[in-house]
């Protein structure tokens, strides 16, 4: 991971991220009289120094984390979508396969994998969501809004002094599609296989080989050949195949194995990228 990034305003008023090994990333190109401030809400705001007009704000560019006051939805005037996107893997911050989005037509939150809806949190009805344990969300007050310019969902913290978990501020969509409220949450991926529609899961087309409704189970074992130090470790030894695709994270490995009728098990290769697939008998 490249941690050399520096946020700066240059002498022409451009708001930039400078980093080693590449051109600066331009966030905003404006006038010379600009200032930036990190608000108590966590929103980083670039303003016109003369008028105070807001020119750019980080809340318009969510990554994998949602904070109180942020929005999920769409701005019809600018065409901007506010969506959470998971990391590719635990230590790889590139965009991963999962997104958490507001569905304005259904008035619900949905999780997509590579664009396909596979789970929905349900419709927010304070203080409940249809498919989330109340104990995880009773700290929040939800809101949604629809007009000709915007359609969005958001939340604030319940200001009750009896709130049990005052530190549970942020929501995060992790690289395995888990939705975490601070560090407490649940995995949608473990529940939804495309043939079941309980607990918020959404059905989608299945390979014929999965018609008997199988599931994945966590097991220990090895894909290695007789000599685990053999430099052919990722060849087709013992029916294990390594794809080496740098755009595949753990969330992709599961989906790839599921759609391959010969695949009976998979291993996400460490904290980075690539999948090792097992075909044949376990």
From TrEMBL:
InterPro entries: Bulb-type_lectin_dom, Bulb-type_lectin_dom_sf, Pan_app. Residues 3-87 form the Bulb-type lectin domain. GO terms for molecular function: kinase activity. It comes from the Eukaryota. Keywords: Disulfide bond, Glycoprotein, Kinase, Signal, Transferase. Residues 246-282 form the Apple domain. The keyword Kinase applies. This is G-type lectin S-receptor-like serine/threonine-protein kinase.
